[in-house]
Amino acid sequence: MRLHVGCAMWSLKSWQGRFIPASGTDRLRSYAGWCNAVEGNTTFYATPTLATVSGWAAQAPADFRFVLKLPREVTHGAALSDISGMSEFLRVIEPLGPRIHALWVQLPGSFGPGDLPALARFLRLLPDSFRYAVEVRDPAFFHHPRHLEDLLGTVGAEWVPFDTTEFFRTPPTSDAERDAWLKKPRMPLRTDALTDRPIIRYLGRDATGRTVEGWRKWVPIVAGWLREGRSPTFFVHTPDNADAPELCRRFHDEVRALVPDLEPLPPPPPASSLEPEGPPTLF
C-alpha cells in the first residue's frame, strides 16, 4: 500500500533555502526528502540528454516515482501520427528504470472524441514495458466518457483528470491566480479510476485554506483506493506553488488519518542541510 504525492517540478526559486538548497545541483535529492513523486513536465518541452537523466537517477531514491510527459512534438505537433521521436525519448529515460511510474500522454484541447482512433493506434505502438496515463482537455470526453474509458482499458492505461474546480470557484485574488486563470483549463470533475495506479492532478488556490478545502473530497476517495489495493498518485498545484511540497505532505497525512496502515512519509531534511557551506565566494 503506497500513496505517492508530488508537485509539478522539483525546483522553484521560492523554495530555495526552505525545501531545496539555495545553490548546487542536488535539488532533486532535497525535493525527494519532501515528496515521493514528481510530474516530469520538462520532458514535454525538450528531450533531455542521457547524462541529465542519469543525474536524476543518481539523486532520486529507489522508491521515488516520475510521471514523465511525452514530448510535445509527438502529442501536439504530430498529433500522435509520428512516433519517430519516441525511440530517442525512451532511450534517454532508461536510467530511471522502475522509478518511471507512468508515461504521461497529455493531449491538447483540440483533441476531441473524433480523434480517438489516432490515440488507439498510438497506444498500441508503444512498448508494453511502461505504464501509460492519458490526459484529455476536451470537455466532451467527460460528458460521454465510455468510449475513452473502453479504449484505455484495452491497453491498461489510466485517465488523468486535472481537478481545477476549486480554483475556478471564485475569481482570482492575486497576480499568480490571475495568470493561472487565463492559462489553466476549466475541466469537469472526474473521480473514477481505471487501473491500480490512478493519478490525480489538483489545482488549489494561493490561500492554504482554500487549497485544503478543495481537496477534501479527494481524501476519502484516495483512502478508498488504498483500501482496494491501488497505489494512487496525487499531484498538488497552486498558482504560485510556494508551499506545494508542504501541502503534499499535508494531503498524505490527511489520507493516512483514514488509513492508519499507510506508511508515513520520512521526515523532511532539516533546514540546516539546505544552507550553502561556507561564505559565498566570487569564484
Automatic annotation (TrEMBL):
Sequence segments annotated as region (Disordered): 260-283
Species: Actinoplanes subglobosus
PANTHER family (UniProt xref): UNCHARACTERIZED PROTEIN YECE, UPF0759 PROTEIN YECE
Regions of compositional bias (Pro residues) in chain numbering: 263-283
Pfam family, one: DUF72
Lineage: superkingdom: Bacteria
Record's protein name: DUF72 domain-containing protein
InterPro entries: DUF72, UPF0759_sf
